[in-house]
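=== Structural record ===
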Amino acid sequence: MIEKEIFFEYGDNNSEVLQLVHPNNFVKTAEYSQVLVDFIKTLKERVDKTYALVNALSAGEFYGSNRNGDYFPEGALKEYHKTFEALGHVYRHHVNKDPKKSMGRVMFSHYNPEMHRVELILELDRKKSEDILTRLDKGDLPAVSMGCRVPWDECSICGNRAKTRKEYCDHLTKSMNKVMSGGQRVVAINRMPKFFDLSVVLIPADKTAGFLSKVAGYKKEGFISKVSAAVTAPSLDVALQKIAEQDTYAEIRKNVEAKVDCVSMDPKLLIRNSQSR
């Protein structure tokens, strides 16, 4: 079993820092599925809670690997993204041994088939995350990093499956994220990820990761920026060749990171805001 912290660099693939919005402002655009919007509509304002919409993981066939060389096939994200709901809590810097010490939990996970990414709704305890919320209001945006466990890593070149780093082939040990002579990038394919940790960190790192919006309770206006994505799904081999020129990086502990721009607190405004764009 390999435990990873998956880093996702904010700003790649035309992703933007998105303003934190009042939930009532969340107006559906083409990039958000109706499933996500319907869930947001069920959220209730609470004086002790704040909600956040996070753009978590993107499919490798469309966005490539992350900087550590970790590649998540679309099929794996579709099959395993709900482990965020079953296991996921919000921590600080991956201090994740005790869920009771977490700042919150992952309420809802959805795979967006149009944008080819996992989107999460977080519930944050306002007292435990007070300093984070203060930073968000000031525009000092923390990143988001996600931890997962995989039973093995699969080499994109030779197909070797390693249960530990010690079992890595020479490709993953010596050439991670390098492009081979045939044009194929060396990546570690993650086919069975179980996601258990969403941490607030300071350094950003995947292509589309980011707090897309934040739902709290103040009457603030905001907006949600768009994230562009490919519209066709090539096979894994073709995808790995097409992303050969992309700059990526990762290690066996993997994080999904992002930034946040602003905070608001009412779930309904989140919906209205998305539709207005």
